[in-house]
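Milestone 3.1: sequence recovery, worked example.
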């Protein structure tokens, strides 16, 4: 790490997913010195492989996780105000199926969903007649009634990057492609050894506290990085998604019940596609090896075909992705019922430096998780500020929740020659910061509106180094840029980052 050999940071964070970056941002804003290391790209694993929802978790009510649901419902609107460019309201259509959960149970669940979270910005539940509502048009005739409720959509990977950017603005040292090899206690501090995976350079830093936010690798880091047994168990559960050409014309999403008791979503994705998922499958000990199986593809296609008039076939699938959720193992027999709540395990032998292990969690509650993490570490540190993140915006989010269209209009006026679709995409990705990209000379065009100006911004400001960083995590243009465009981008990056 940079700085004198004897310099000490207050908090060293291992892991650049949503929890690690959220904790780094919160800690830096409290006046603490922070260093974060991530062995790959920011949001390179679980945090870019979600269903892209900021939601209360309607199905968690069935498992009596009322505290988690209430906290998540409150957080929906907190996060919406923080980042209205990458988070926006979405309506979900839940068709009633006579053979599954009864209508009274759905009504009760949605009543609680509407009222226990202090909803102010989002509209309430209503009942739909699918025989006349446009939401019924793509569905089979047997579905005649549905409930429509509110949640939010989020660009998950960008939420991680924006937290990292704000952490850096507040003084945090963010190092990607940097692996934590080991950490050991010495003289009341942590000695943290790291390796830059691009250059092979090794370094050691000292820290007053260590946060293990390694996601699916949380238990492995305890075993290999710290050389000890985990005091809590982690359950690795794979969630897979498929992407198909757009199945319906409206902007609402569907919440479907499957015959096996699981639920799944069908969500408008990137204008021309529909995102379908997720699955819940227990996996082995290597999160990096997780890929969607043919059984999962078949499962999702068959489940969607139970609802849509037009069958979803294997040959319709144009993209897939899988993420591994590091859930706290609460002993439930089925993956779908395992808790999505977070568990923070503090290890602090008397007189020794503390380490905090982060198990579980979900994107919606990452900010509250960060607050809880800092509360546990506060006795060992000296923050100059208390909780602060709830009323602050993330980079580019300094506009009103209902001001997105006005922002797009201002940006289009700044670059009248740019395609409207590209301007809107940049506004969604960067908010008010998009003006820096649109106001620059655009340079090479890699296709789908992706230019050298934007890529340069991503390299300089957002830690992007590879084509996948840009096409799948920073811009979601992987389905639009041609192989030739990708090759040109890779050549440009090779020259730029040499």
């Amino acid at each position: 790490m940079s700085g004198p050999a004897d310099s000490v940071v207050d908090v060293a964070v291992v892991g650049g997913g949503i929890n690690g970056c959220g904790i780094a941002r919160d800690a830096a804003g409290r006046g603490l010195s922070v260093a974060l290391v991530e062995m790959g790209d920011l949001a390179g694993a679980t945090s870019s492989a979600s269903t892209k929802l900021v939601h209360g978790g309607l199905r968690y009510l069935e498992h009596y996780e009322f505290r988690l649901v209430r906290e998540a419902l409150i957080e929906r609107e907190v996060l919406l105000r923080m980042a209205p460019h990458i988070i926006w309201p979405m309506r979900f259509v839940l068709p009633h199926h006579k053979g599954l959960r009864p209508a009274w149970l759905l009504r009760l669940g949605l009543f609680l969903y509407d009222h226990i979270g202090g909803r102010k910005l989002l509209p309430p539940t209503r009942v739909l007649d699918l025989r006349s509502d446009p939401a019924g048009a793509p569905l089979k005739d047997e579905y005649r009634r549905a409930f429509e409720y509110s949640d939010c959509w989020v660009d998950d990977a960008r939420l991680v990057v924006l937290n990292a950017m704000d952490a850096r603005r507040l003084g945090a040292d963010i190092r990607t492609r940097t692996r934590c090899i080991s950490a050991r206690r010495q003289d009341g501090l942590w000695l943290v050894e790291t390796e830059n995976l691009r250059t092979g350079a090794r370094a050691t830093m000292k820290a007053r506290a260590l946060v293990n936010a390694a996601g699916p690798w949380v238990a492995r880091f305890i075993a290999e990085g710290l050389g000890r047994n985990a005091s809590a168990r982690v359950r690795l559960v794979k969630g897979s998604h498929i992407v198909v050409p757009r199945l319906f014309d409206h902007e609402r999403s569907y919440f479907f019940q499957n015959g096996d008791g699981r639920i799944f979503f069908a969500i408008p994705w990137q204008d021309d596609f529909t995102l379908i998922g997720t699955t819940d499958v227990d996996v082995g000990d290597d999160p990096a090896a997780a890929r969607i199986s043919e059984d999962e593809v078949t499962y999702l296609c068959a489940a969607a075909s139970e609802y849509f008039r037009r069958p979803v076939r294997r040959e319709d699938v144009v993209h897939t992705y899988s993420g591994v959720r590091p859930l706290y193992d609460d002993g439930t027999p089925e993956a779908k019922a395992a808790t999505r709540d977070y568990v923070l395990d503090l290890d602090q032998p008397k007189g020794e430096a503390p380490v905090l292990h982060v198990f579980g969690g979900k994107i919606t509650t990452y900010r509250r998780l960060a607050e809880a993490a800092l509360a546990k570490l506060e006795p060992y540190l000296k923050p100059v500020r208390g909780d602060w993140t709830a009323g602050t915006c993330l980079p580019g989010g300094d506009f009103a929740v209902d001001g997105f269209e006005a922002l797009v209009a201002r940006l289009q006026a700044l670059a009248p020659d740019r395609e409207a679709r590209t301007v809107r995409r940049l506004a969604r990705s960067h908010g008010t910061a998009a003006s820096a990209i649109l106001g620059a000379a655009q340079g090479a065009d890699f296709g789908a509106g992706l230019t050298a100006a934007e890529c340069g911004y991503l390299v300089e400001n957002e830690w992007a180094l590879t084509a996948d960083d840009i096409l799948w995590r920073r811009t979601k243009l992987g389905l639009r840029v041609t192989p030739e465009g990708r090759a040109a981008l890779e050549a440009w990056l090779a020259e730029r980052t040499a």
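The chain is about 30% helix and 25% strand. The longest strand covers residues 234-245.
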